[in-house]
Amino acid sequence: MSSVLENLEFFDLLRERHIQVRSIIEKRWNDSSNIYISNSEWFILSRIYQQEPTISSVSKQVNISRQATHKVIKNLEAKGLLKIKNLENNKKDKCVHLTELGEKCYQEYIELKANLEKKIIEQIGDEQFRLLKAIMESDWGLQSLIKESNPTLLGSDS
User: Fold this and answer.
1) What pTM did the predictor assign?
2) In a domain? residue 157
3) Is 9 inside any structural domain?
4) Which 3 state secondary structure label does DSSP give 94?
């Protein structure tokens, strides 16, 4: 697999590593639990964990349609992982929060991620990992590029 990664440009390399990590975590969860949870479901659970956001705010955070978000949320509710409740002053939007089971599952998920992080540190070394994390946390100036909606994002900068 590493020879395939060597030939990728930066953004494809980021995507491939992300796919690998998400696949490992999803497989480990689904191998050890009788509750199947997809990557998109984990993504939405992460936006709800320890909060009570509205469905529309979750939809904006995950950048998928409100209908798609609602479908995933309904699936998570059917699995007993979250509850949907009406807002007192708003009949249109609804609020979501994790159930006790949802909280327990998400905490186990956090442990799975921490264990994978330890394995990565063992493989690449503590200093390399800290450097990689610092680079990922640093300001890449992307927010200003998004706000500009500038053609330079499409590679036409002179």
Assistant:
1) 0.81
2) no
3) yes
4) strand
